[in-house]
Give the backbone structure.
Amino acid sequence: MKHKFIIIFFVFFSLFNYSQNIRSPENVEIVKDVVYGEVDGVKLYLDIIKPKEISSKMPVIVFVHGGGWKSGDKQGGTYRLIPFAQKGYFCVSINYRLSNVAKFPAQIEDCKCAIRFLRANAEKYNIDPDKIGAWGPSAGGHLVALLGTTGNTKEFDGKGGWEGYSSKVNAVCDWFGPSDFLTGIEKSEKQGSAYMVIGELLGGVIENIKEKAKKASPVYYVNKECPPFLIMHGDKDNVVPYIQSQILYEKLKENNVPVTLVKIKDGGHGYGFKNKALEFVESFFDYYLKGEKEKWENLRGNKDFIEIPAE
């Protein structure tokens, strides 16, 4: 049973992270392995997925891969981002230092460096520095949520380069990321459990480093200045409990931040997120980064909590 749990955990965490050679459509250009920063001799890379023909400043979507902060790669975001590039978005999928290389806060520091890099190079890439969205699943969901809630927090800025530029994002799509390391994480010494993986990220047992666990939890930074959030989570997720998204959703609502929580009925950790789920992501970014309001409002029906079936 123990081995079965471990296998399931890593299969789910890997669904969004597999590497493969993806052919780009004729109207999309992929530029791989662009250096966006360097920390302690470690170069940080991202891939660019963008339309070949550009007529105006492009909104941006930054994809942050999952993998329990200990595995995964930027290539896992490429296939997700190609349709957005075809719609006129400048997209990037980033790597960040994994927990076997550096402990928290290295991961969020790298994500913030990537946002600063984009703003510093906005003219070069013809992008709109005021229209940057972030999207990630699982561990990537945690990191994009942290990007969204710490826009006014300088503590995680300053490493990697591009000092002086803002690391704020303008919209966040969090797919089943943990939001509170002190709540709802079942204690387990099974190798590969969420409890153990979070411990590896933080560099110790959660109970012994509660302040650091709190520091790494997006929910504790929520404030009225946070950007709009779309949170999506399967109610049968046996890796990151659904309550993690409920906690973040409720805290954002308390602070009057525009937020929509989509429960994927019978969805698990990394499955059930197909056509309808992607329609929500597309409409969310189209509204908040392009100003295309009608489709988003029709899809939501003026509700901020929605249930859709797993696909």
Notes: The mean pLDDT is 92. Residues 114 and 241 are 29 Å apart (CA to CA). The beta strands are 28-39, 42-51, 58-64, 90-94, 127-137, 171-175, 229-234, 259-265, 305-309. The radius of gyration is 18 Å.
